[in-house]
Amino acid sequence: MNPIFRNILAVIAGTLLGSVINGAIVAVSGHIIPPPAGAVLTTVEGLKASMHLMEPKHFLMPFLAHAIGTLVGAFLSVKIGVSRKILLAMIVGVLFLIGGTINVMMLPSPIWFNVLDLVVAYIPMAYLGARLGIR
Fold first, then answer.
1. Are 58 and 32 in contact (CB under 8 A)?
2. Rounded CA gap, 106 and 108, in Å?
3. Distance separating alpha carbons of residues 77 and 118, to the nearest angstrom
4. Burial of 43 (0-12, 13-18, 19+ CB in 10 A)
5. Closest Cα partner for 76 from 11, 5, 24?
6. Which of 90, 67, 86, 72 is nearest to 17 (CA)?
7. CA 120, CA 67: separation in Å to the nearest integer?
8. Spatial CA neighbour of 94 closest among 120, 132, 126
9. pLDDT tier at 66 (50, 70, 90 boundaries)?
10. Cα 12 to chain center, whole Å?
11. Which of 14, 26, 35, 52 is within CB 3.0–4.6 Å of 76 for a Cys-Cys bond?
12. 124 vs 33, 39, 56, 86, 91, CA distance in Å?
């Protein structure tokens, strides 16, 4: 297989798997940490309207979803990729960072969560996933 094609495939596969992991963690998060009473978390409008009810514990699962999704996606991209593996993982991280930035712009989350999420959950986790995948 052409190395360039395989590297592109690695980034696509990493992004897809990371997105599935992210979504799965978000989907089960309400069973692990129940949402506040009266909160509707199934729509963007419901999230916006319920954000003032959220406590710090309610931001743990979204953070883990973003961080673990990025980590696993970057790891997979390194395992599939042929060359420039750290770059492949960083591309996955940047794609997730773009999604996280859009999320921050759409939802009125607390500033502490936005900073933590954007600074820790994407690029550092992509780098960690790359390092783990290269070993």
1. no
2. 7
3. 21
4. exposed
5. 11
6. 72
7. 8
8. 126
9. very high
10. 15
11. 14
12. 25, 32, 22, 12, 12
The domain spans of the chain are 3-134
- Give alpha helix (H) positions in 33-106: 44-50, 60-80, 85-106
Q: How far is CA 38 from CA 52, 63, 72, in A?
A: 11, 22, 33
**74/68 Cα distance (integer angstroms):** 10
Across the range 72-91, mean pLDDT stands at 98
Helix (H, G, I), strand (E, B) or coil at 120: helix
- Say whether 121 sits in a helix, a strand or coil: coil
**Is residue 78 a contact partner of residue 89, using CB atoms and an 8 Å limit?**
yes
Tokens of 47: 């999230």
**In the predicted structure, residue 72 carries a pLDDT above the cut 90:** yes
**How far apart, in whole angstroms, are the C-alpha atoms of residue 4 and residue 88?**
11
- What does the pLDDT look like over 12-63, one tens digit per residue? 999 999 999 999 999 999 899 988 888 877 788 888 888 888 999 999 999 9
Cβ pair 57, 35 in contact under 8 A:
no
42 φ/ψ angles, rounded to the nearest 5 degrees: -90, -10
